[in-house]
Amino acid sequence: MKLQKTKLKNDLRVLTSPMPSFESATVLIMVGAGSRYETKLNNGISHFLEHMAFKGTKKRPSAIQMSGLIDSIGGEFNAFTTKEYTGYYIKSSKNNIELSFDLLSDMVQNSLLDEKEIEKEKGVILEEINLYEDTPMRNIGDIYERLLYGDTPMGWDTAGEKDIIKKISRKDFLDYLKALYSPSNMVLAVAGGIEEKGVLPLAEKYFSDMNSFQALKAAPIGEKQEKAKVSIKPKKTEQAHLAIGFRTVPLASPEKYPLSVLSSILGGGMSSRLFHEVREKRGLAYYVRSNSDQYTDAGSLVATAGVDPKRINEAIEVILSEFQALKSGKKEISKEELKKGKEYLKGHLVLELEDSRSVSIFYATQDLLEEKIDNPADVLLEIDKVTTEDVMEAANKYVIDKTLNLAIIGNFDDRQRFEKLLKL
Protein backbone atom coordinates (compact mmCIF):
# COMPACT_ATOMS: atom_id res chain seq x y z
CA MET A 1 0.00 0.00 0.00
CA LYS A 2 1.57 3.29 -1.12
CA LEU A 3 1.51 6.53 0.84
CA GLN A 4 2.48 10.02 -0.28
CA LYS A 5 2.92 12.82 2.24
CA THR A 6 2.98 16.53 1.44
CA LYS A 7 2.81 19.63 3.61
CA LEU A 8 1.05 22.80 2.55
CA LYS A 9 2.54 26.23 3.25
CA ASN A 10 0.30 26.59 6.30
CA ASP A 11 1.72 23.31 7.71
CA LEU A 12 -1.33 21.18 6.99
CA ARG A 13 -0.14 17.63 6.33
CA VAL A 14 -1.70 15.88 3.36
CA LEU A 15 -1.59 12.09 3.17
CA THR A 16 -2.61 10.34 -0.04
CA SER A 17 -3.06 6.57 -0.23
CA PRO A 18 -4.11 5.41 -3.71
CA MET A 19 -6.06 2.15 -3.84
CA PRO A 20 -6.43 1.65 -7.62
CA SER A 21 -9.06 -1.09 -7.54
CA PHE A 22 -11.43 0.98 -5.37
CA GLU A 23 -14.41 2.90 -6.74
CA SER A 24 -14.84 4.69 -3.41
CA ALA A 25 -12.68 7.31 -1.70
CA THR A 26 -12.56 8.68 1.84
CA VAL A 27 -11.55 12.23 2.69
CA LEU A 28 -10.71 12.66 6.39
CA ILE A 29 -9.65 15.71 8.33
CA MET A 30 -8.22 14.79 11.73
CA VAL A 31 -7.44 17.35 14.43
CA GLY A 32 -5.22 16.96 17.48
CA ALA A 33 -8.13 17.99 19.67
CA GLY A 34 -9.77 15.61 22.13
CA SER A 35 -10.96 15.51 25.71
CA ARG A 36 -7.44 15.47 27.18
CA TYR A 37 -7.17 19.12 26.06
CA GLU A 38 -10.19 20.17 28.10
CA THR A 39 -10.61 21.78 31.51
CA LYS A 40 -13.10 21.38 34.34
CA LEU A 41 -15.08 24.26 32.85
CA ASN A 42 -15.45 22.83 29.33
CA ASN A 43 -15.26 19.04 29.74
CA GLY A 44 -17.13 17.53 26.80
CA ILE A 45 -16.58 20.43 24.41
CA SER A 46 -14.44 18.39 21.96
CA HIS A 47 -17.28 15.97 21.39
CA PHE A 48 -19.91 18.72 21.50
CA LEU A 49 -18.02 20.68 18.80
CA GLU A 50 -17.97 17.57 16.62
CA HIS A 51 -21.79 17.59 16.78
CA MET A 52 -22.01 21.32 16.05
CA ALA A 53 -19.87 20.99 12.92
CA PHE A 54 -22.85 19.29 11.25
CA LYS A 55 -25.32 22.03 12.18
CA GLY A 56 -24.60 24.51 9.41
CA THR A 57 -21.99 26.82 7.91
CA LYS A 58 -22.10 30.26 6.32
CA LYS A 59 -22.37 28.63 2.91
CA ARG A 60 -24.79 25.91 3.99
CA PRO A 61 -26.70 27.35 6.96
CA SER A 62 -28.66 24.26 8.01
CA ALA A 63 -27.95 20.66 8.95
CA ILE A 64 -30.38 19.39 6.32
CA GLN A 65 -28.51 21.23 3.57
CA MET A 66 -25.21 19.65 4.62
CA SER A 67 -26.49 16.12 5.07
CA GLY A 68 -28.65 16.39 1.96
CA LEU A 69 -25.58 16.95 -0.21
CA ILE A 70 -24.03 13.68 0.91
CA ASP A 71 -27.30 11.75 0.83
CA SER A 72 -27.77 12.88 -2.77
CA ILE A 73 -24.56 11.07 -3.78
CA GLY A 74 -25.13 8.03 -1.54
CA GLY A 75 -22.15 8.91 0.64
CA GLU A 76 -21.23 8.31 4.28
CA PHE A 77 -20.83 11.45 6.40
CA ASN A 78 -19.69 11.13 10.01
CA ALA A 79 -17.23 12.06 12.74
CA PHE A 80 -15.69 10.74 15.96
CA THR A 81 -14.02 12.14 19.06
CA THR A 82 -11.45 10.46 21.32
CA LYS A 83 -9.27 11.68 24.14
CA GLU A 84 -6.48 12.66 21.76
CA TYR A 85 -8.10 13.57 18.44
CA THR A 86 -11.27 14.37 16.52
CA GLY A 87 -11.96 13.18 12.99
CA TYR A 88 -14.46 14.27 10.33
CA TYR A 89 -14.85 12.23 7.16
CA ILE A 90 -16.87 11.67 4.01
CA LYS A 91 -16.74 8.41 2.10
CA SER A 92 -18.26 8.41 -1.36
CA SER A 93 -17.74 7.47 -4.97
CA LYS A 94 -14.31 8.60 -6.12
CA ASN A 95 -16.06 10.81 -8.67
CA ASN A 96 -17.46 13.01 -5.88
CA ILE A 97 -14.19 13.69 -4.11
CA GLU A 98 -14.27 17.47 -4.66
CA LEU A 99 -17.61 17.75 -2.88
CA SER A 100 -16.03 15.98 0.10
CA PHE A 101 -13.16 18.49 0.17
CA ASP A 102 -15.56 21.41 -0.16
CA LEU A 103 -17.89 20.32 2.62
CA LEU A 104 -15.23 19.21 5.10
CA SER A 105 -13.19 22.40 4.67
CA ASP A 106 -16.38 24.41 5.15
CA MET A 107 -17.17 22.55 8.37
CA VAL A 108 -13.80 23.08 10.06
CA GLN A 109 -13.45 26.71 8.95
CA ASN A 110 -16.94 28.21 8.80
CA SER A 111 -19.27 26.52 11.27
CA LEU A 112 -22.05 28.90 12.30
CA LEU A 113 -22.22 27.70 15.90
CA ASP A 114 -25.69 29.20 16.10
CA GLU A 115 -26.76 29.78 19.70
CA LYS A 116 -30.22 28.29 19.16
CA GLU A 117 -28.66 25.16 17.63
CA ILE A 118 -26.23 24.92 20.54
CA GLU A 119 -29.11 24.92 23.02
CA LYS A 120 -31.01 22.28 21.04
CA GLU A 121 -27.94 20.07 20.68
CA LYS A 122 -27.37 20.10 24.42
CA GLY A 123 -30.43 17.87 24.68
CA VAL A 124 -28.94 15.47 22.14
CA ILE A 125 -25.63 15.31 24.03
CA LEU A 126 -27.40 14.71 27.34
CA GLU A 127 -29.33 11.81 25.81
CA GLU A 128 -26.10 10.39 24.40
CA ILE A 129 -24.61 10.49 27.90
CA ASN A 130 -27.75 8.70 29.17
CA LEU A 131 -27.21 6.05 26.50
CA TYR A 132 -23.68 5.39 27.74
CA GLU A 133 -24.88 5.33 31.34
CA ASP A 134 -27.51 2.73 30.42
CA THR A 135 -25.03 0.60 28.46
CA PRO A 136 -22.54 -0.73 31.04
CA MET A 137 -20.65 -2.78 28.43
CA ARG A 138 -19.65 0.54 26.80
CA ASN A 139 -19.34 2.50 30.03
CA ILE A 140 -16.98 0.13 31.83
CA GLY A 141 -14.01 1.38 29.78
CA ASP A 142 -14.66 4.94 30.99
CA ILE A 143 -14.84 3.79 34.61
CA TYR A 144 -11.60 1.88 34.20
CA GLU A 145 -9.75 4.86 32.70
CA ARG A 146 -11.07 7.14 35.42
CA LEU A 147 -9.49 4.75 37.90
CA LEU A 148 -6.21 4.81 35.96
CA TYR A 149 -5.92 8.55 35.39
CA GLY A 150 -8.00 10.02 38.18
CA ASP A 151 -9.53 13.49 38.20
CA THR A 152 -7.58 14.70 35.17
CA PRO A 153 -8.61 15.29 31.53
CA MET A 154 -7.43 11.75 30.68
CA GLY A 155 -9.70 10.37 33.37
CA TRP A 156 -12.79 12.35 32.40
CA ASP A 157 -15.49 11.05 30.05
CA THR A 158 -15.15 12.26 26.47
CA ALA A 159 -18.89 12.95 26.34
CA GLY A 160 -18.53 15.29 29.33
CA GLU A 161 -20.51 15.90 32.50
CA LYS A 162 -24.17 16.91 32.24
CA ASP A 163 -23.85 20.02 34.42
CA ILE A 164 -20.95 21.30 32.34
CA ILE A 165 -22.62 20.54 28.99
CA LYS A 166 -25.60 22.65 30.06
CA LYS A 167 -23.34 25.68 30.60
CA ILE A 168 -21.23 25.57 27.42
CA SER A 169 -21.65 28.72 25.31
CA ARG A 170 -20.81 29.88 21.81
CA LYS A 171 -17.78 31.75 23.18
CA ASP A 172 -16.47 28.48 24.67
CA PHE A 173 -16.56 26.90 21.20
CA LEU A 174 -14.79 29.87 19.60
CA ASP A 175 -12.07 29.85 22.27
CA TYR A 176 -11.57 26.11 21.80
CA LEU A 177 -11.27 26.48 18.02
CA LYS A 178 -8.71 29.26 18.45
CA ALA A 179 -6.66 27.05 20.78
CA LEU A 180 -6.56 23.83 18.73
CA TYR A 181 -7.99 24.01 15.21
CA SER A 182 -4.79 25.11 13.49
CA PRO A 183 -3.70 23.50 10.19
CA SER A 184 -0.39 22.73 11.92
CA ASN A 185 -2.43 20.54 14.28
CA MET A 186 -4.36 18.77 11.51
CA VAL A 187 -3.89 15.94 9.05
CA LEU A 188 -5.83 15.63 5.80
CA ALA A 189 -5.90 11.97 4.73
CA VAL A 190 -7.36 10.75 1.46
CA ALA A 191 -7.57 7.05 0.57
CA GLY A 192 -9.27 5.00 -2.13
CA GLY A 193 -9.60 5.20 -5.88
CA ILE A 194 -7.66 8.46 -6.23
CA GLU A 195 -4.29 9.72 -7.42
CA GLU A 196 -1.95 12.13 -5.66
CA LYS A 197 -1.96 14.51 -8.62
CA GLY A 198 -5.70 14.93 -8.18
CA VAL A 199 -5.60 15.36 -4.41
CA LEU A 200 -3.02 18.10 -3.91
CA PRO A 201 -4.75 20.76 -6.06
CA LEU A 202 -7.96 20.17 -4.10
CA ALA A 203 -6.10 20.39 -0.78
CA GLU A 204 -4.61 23.70 -1.87
CA LYS A 205 -7.94 25.00 -3.14
CA TYR A 206 -9.96 24.23 -0.02
CA PHE A 207 -7.51 24.36 2.89
CA SER A 208 -4.59 26.68 2.03
CA ASP A 209 -6.39 29.80 3.26
CA MET A 210 -6.43 28.55 6.85
CA ASN A 211 -4.08 30.50 9.11
CA SER A 212 -1.63 28.48 11.16
CA PHE A 213 -0.82 29.07 14.84
CA GLN A 214 0.79 27.24 17.74
CA ALA A 215 -1.82 24.82 19.08
CA LEU A 216 -2.40 24.13 22.75
CA LYS A 217 -0.31 21.30 24.22
CA ALA A 218 -1.85 18.69 26.49
CA ALA A 219 -0.58 18.17 30.01
CA PRO A 220 1.43 14.94 30.35
CA ILE A 221 -0.07 11.96 32.15
CA GLY A 222 1.33 11.46 35.63
CA GLU A 223 1.35 7.72 36.34
CA LYS A 224 2.12 6.93 39.97
CA GLN A 225 0.72 3.75 41.47
CA GLU A 226 2.18 1.65 44.26
CA LYS A 227 -0.65 -0.76 45.02
CA ALA A 228 -3.67 -2.38 43.40
CA LYS A 229 -6.81 -0.22 43.19
CA VAL A 230 -10.56 -0.83 42.91
CA SER A 231 -13.32 1.45 41.64
CA ILE A 232 -17.02 0.55 41.85
CA LYS A 233 -19.84 2.34 40.08
CA PRO A 234 -22.95 1.20 41.97
CA LYS A 235 -25.77 0.39 39.55
CA LYS A 236 -28.64 -2.06 39.64
CA THR A 237 -28.03 -4.36 36.70
CA GLU A 238 -28.79 -7.95 35.80
CA GLN A 239 -25.17 -8.39 34.74
CA ALA A 240 -22.04 -7.06 36.43
CA HIS A 241 -19.37 -5.58 34.17
CA LEU A 242 -15.71 -5.49 35.06
CA ALA A 243 -12.36 -4.39 33.70
CA ILE A 244 -9.11 -5.77 35.11
CA GLY A 245 -5.85 -4.37 33.82
CA PHE A 246 -2.29 -3.21 34.24
CA ARG A 247 -0.40 -0.06 33.26
CA THR A 248 1.90 -0.64 30.31
CA VAL A 249 3.59 1.46 27.58
CA PRO A 250 2.87 4.48 25.37
CA LEU A 251 2.16 4.42 21.67
CA ALA A 252 5.73 4.85 20.46
CA SER A 253 7.14 1.96 22.50
CA PRO A 254 8.30 -1.12 20.55
CA GLU A 255 6.95 -3.19 23.45
CA LYS A 256 3.44 -2.55 22.20
CA TYR A 257 3.86 -5.44 19.76
CA PRO A 258 4.66 -8.16 22.35
CA LEU A 259 1.86 -6.76 24.53
CA SER A 260 -0.58 -6.98 21.62
CA VAL A 261 0.37 -10.61 21.03
CA LEU A 262 0.04 -11.28 24.77
CA SER A 263 -3.44 -9.74 24.70
CA SER A 264 -4.36 -11.78 21.64
CA ILE A 265 -3.34 -15.03 23.35
CA LEU A 266 -5.27 -14.15 26.49
CA GLY A 267 -8.48 -12.74 25.06
CA GLY A 268 -8.35 -12.30 21.30
CA GLY A 269 -11.17 -14.42 20.01
CA MET A 270 -13.30 -17.46 20.78
CA SER A 271 -10.33 -19.81 21.14
CA SER A 272 -8.38 -17.53 23.50
CA ARG A 273 -7.48 -18.54 27.04
CA LEU A 274 -9.93 -16.20 28.74
CA PHE A 275 -12.84 -17.10 26.47
CA HIS A 276 -12.23 -20.81 27.07
CA GLU A 277 -11.75 -20.58 30.84
CA VAL A 278 -14.32 -17.91 31.71
CA ARG A 279 -17.12 -18.62 29.25
CA GLU A 280 -16.78 -22.09 27.75
CA LYS A 281 -15.45 -23.98 30.77
CA ARG A 282 -17.30 -22.22 33.61
CA GLY A 283 -20.18 -20.29 32.01
CA LEU A 284 -19.30 -17.16 33.98
CA ALA A 285 -19.74 -14.59 31.22
CA TYR A 286 -21.38 -13.86 27.90
CA TYR A 287 -18.51 -11.71 26.67
CA VAL A 288 -14.88 -11.69 27.80
CA ARG A 289 -11.97 -10.19 25.91
CA SER A 290 -8.67 -8.41 26.37
CA ASN A 291 -7.00 -5.45 24.69
CA SER A 292 -3.64 -3.72 24.69
CA ASP A 293 -4.34 0.01 24.40
CA GLN A 294 -1.94 2.92 24.00
CA TYR A 295 -2.05 6.70 24.22
CA THR A 296 0.87 8.96 23.34
CA ASP A 297 2.24 8.78 26.89
CA ALA A 298 0.49 5.86 28.60
CA GLY A 299 -0.93 2.41 27.98
CA SER A 300 -2.85 -0.46 29.51
CA LEU A 301 -3.37 -4.19 29.13
CA VAL A 302 -6.97 -4.84 30.16
CA ALA A 303 -9.51 -7.67 30.22
CA THR A 304 -13.23 -6.88 30.25
CA ALA A 305 -16.22 -9.12 30.90
CA GLY A 306 -19.93 -9.15 31.65
CA VAL A 307 -20.59 -11.70 34.40
CA ASP A 308 -23.21 -13.13 36.73
CA PRO A 309 -23.16 -10.78 39.78
CA LYS A 310 -23.44 -13.77 42.13
CA ARG A 311 -20.26 -15.25 40.66
CA ILE A 312 -18.22 -12.09 40.18
CA ASN A 313 -15.59 -13.15 42.72
CA GLU A 314 -15.01 -16.37 40.85
CA ALA A 315 -14.77 -14.52 37.52
CA ILE A 316 -12.15 -12.11 38.89
CA GLU A 317 -10.14 -14.95 40.33
CA VAL A 318 -10.22 -16.92 37.07
CA ILE A 319 -9.19 -13.93 34.97
CA LEU A 320 -6.31 -13.10 37.29
CA SER A 321 -5.23 -16.72 37.37
CA GLU A 322 -4.94 -16.68 33.57
CA PHE A 323 -2.75 -13.59 33.69
CA GLN A 324 -0.60 -15.28 36.34
CA ALA A 325 -0.46 -18.65 34.55
CA LEU A 326 0.87 -16.97 31.42
CA LYS A 327 3.34 -14.80 33.32
CA SER A 328 4.73 -17.64 35.43
CA GLY A 329 4.91 -20.12 32.59
CA LYS A 330 2.55 -22.47 34.40
CA LYS A 331 0.65 -22.56 31.12
CA GLU A 332 3.40 -22.37 28.56
CA ILE A 333 2.88 -20.59 25.25
CA SER A 334 3.17 -23.24 22.57
CA LYS A 335 4.46 -22.53 19.07
CA GLU A 336 0.95 -23.04 17.76
CA GLU A 337 -0.56 -20.64 20.28
CA LEU A 338 2.03 -17.96 19.52
CA LYS A 339 1.41 -18.33 15.80
CA LYS A 340 -2.35 -18.19 16.25
CA GLY A 341 -2.06 -15.08 18.43
CA LYS A 342 0.01 -13.30 15.81
CA GLU A 343 -2.15 -14.40 12.90
CA TYR A 344 -5.25 -13.18 14.75
CA LEU A 345 -3.77 -9.67 14.95
CA LYS A 346 -2.49 -9.70 11.40
CA GLY A 347 -5.74 -11.03 9.96
CA HIS A 348 -7.85 -8.39 11.71
CA LEU A 349 -5.56 -5.61 10.49
CA VAL A 350 -5.72 -6.85 6.91
CA LEU A 351 -9.51 -7.13 7.00
CA GLU A 352 -9.87 -3.69 8.54
CA LEU A 353 -7.72 -2.05 5.87
CA GLU A 354 -9.90 -3.29 3.03
CA ASP A 355 -11.96 -0.13 3.66
CA SER A 356 -10.79 3.32 2.49
CA ARG A 357 -12.13 4.95 5.68
CA SER A 358 -10.02 2.65 7.86
CA VAL A 359 -6.94 3.28 5.72
CA SER A 360 -7.30 7.04 6.06
CA ILE A 361 -7.67 6.73 9.85
CA PHE A 362 -4.75 4.28 10.04
CA TYR A 363 -2.35 6.77 8.47
CA ALA A 364 -3.79 9.97 9.97
CA THR A 365 -3.59 8.81 13.57
CA GLN A 366 0.03 7.78 13.15
CA ASP A 367 1.01 11.08 11.57
CA LEU A 368 -0.82 13.06 14.23
CA LEU A 369 0.34 11.12 17.29
CA GLU A 370 3.62 9.42 16.40
CA GLU A 371 7.00 10.48 15.06
CA LYS A 372 6.86 8.16 12.05
CA ILE A 373 4.32 6.45 9.82
CA ASP A 374 4.42 2.69 9.38
CA ASN A 375 2.83 1.03 6.39
CA PRO A 376 0.64 -2.02 7.09
CA ALA A 377 3.51 -4.21 5.85
CA ASP A 378 5.77 -2.70 8.53
CA VAL A 379 3.22 -3.45 11.25
CA LEU A 380 2.74 -7.02 10.02
CA LEU A 381 6.51 -7.51 10.08
CA GLU A 382 6.78 -6.21 13.65
CA ILE A 383 4.05 -8.62 14.76
CA ASP A 384 5.81 -11.48 12.96
CA LYS A 385 9.07 -10.70 14.77
CA VAL A 386 7.53 -11.20 18.24
CA THR A 387 8.89 -14.29 20.00
CA THR A 388 7.68 -16.28 22.99
CA GLU A 389 10.53 -14.72 24.97
CA ASP A 390 9.30 -11.23 24.04
CA VAL A 391 5.79 -12.03 25.26
CA MET A 392 7.06 -13.53 28.52
CA GLU A 393 9.35 -10.56 29.12
CA ALA A 394 6.43 -8.16 28.64
CA ALA A 395 4.22 -10.23 30.95
CA ASN A 396 6.82 -10.32 33.71
CA LYS A 397 7.51 -6.62 33.37
CA TYR A 398 3.95 -5.30 33.30
CA VAL A 399 1.63 -7.92 34.82
CA ILE A 400 2.44 -6.93 38.40
CA ASP A 401 0.45 -6.39 41.59
CA LYS A 402 1.24 -2.72 42.16
CA THR A 403 -0.18 -1.50 38.83
CA LEU A 404 -3.24 -3.77 38.92
CA ASN A 405 -6.60 -1.99 38.57
CA LEU A 406 -10.16 -3.31 38.82
CA ALA A 407 -13.22 -1.32 37.75
CA ILE A 408 -16.75 -2.65 38.30
CA ILE A 409 -20.26 -1.57 37.35
CA GLY A 410 -22.87 -3.37 39.40
CA ASN A 411 -24.97 -3.46 42.55
CA PHE A 412 -22.01 -3.54 44.95
CA ASP A 413 -20.63 -1.20 47.60
CA ASP A 414 -18.01 -3.28 49.44
CA ARG A 415 -14.68 -2.27 47.94
CA GLN A 416 -12.66 -4.29 50.46
CA ARG A 417 -14.36 -7.46 49.25
CA PHE A 418 -12.73 -6.99 45.86
CA GLU A 419 -9.43 -5.58 47.10
CA LYS A 420 -8.80 -8.90 48.83
CA LEU A 421 -8.95 -10.66 45.44
CA LEU A 422 -6.32 -8.49 43.71
CA LYS A 423 -3.29 -10.72 44.07
CA LEU A 424 -1.30 -12.52 41.43
Portion of residues in helices? 40-55%
The overall number of domains is 2
Architecture (CATH level 2) name of the largest domain: 2-Layer Sandwich
Which strand order do you get reading across the main beta sheet?
Answer: 1-2-6-3-5-4
Using DSSP, what is the number of strands? 11
What do we call the CATH topology of the largest domain? Cytochrome Bc1 Complex, Chain A, domain 1
User: How much is the radius of gyration in Å?
Assistant: 23 Å
Class computed from helices, strands and strand pairing:
alpha+beta
Query: What would CATH call the class of the largest domain?
Result: Alpha Beta
The profile of the biggest β sheet is: 6 strands, mixed
Helix tally equals: 16
**In percent, how much strand structure appears in the residues?**
15-25%
Low-confidence stretches: none
- Averaged pLDDT: 97
Task: Report the order of strands and helices.
Answer: EEEHHEEHHHHHEHEEHHEEHHHHHEH
Description:
The chain is an alpha+beta fold. The protein has two domains: 204 residues, Metalloenzyme, LuxS/M16 peptidase-like (Cytochrome Bc1 Complex, Chain A, domain 1); 191 residues, Cytochrome Bc1 Complex, Chain A, domain 1 (2-Layer Sandwich). The chain is 44% helix and 19% strand. It has 16 helices and eleven strands. It has a six-stranded mixed sheet with strand order 1-2-6-3-5-4, with helices on both faces. A five-stranded mixed sheet has the order 7-11-8-10-9, sandwiched between helices. The radius of gyration is 23 Å and the shape is globular.
Sum this structure up briefly:
With 424 residues, the chain is α+β, with helices and mostly antiparallel strands.
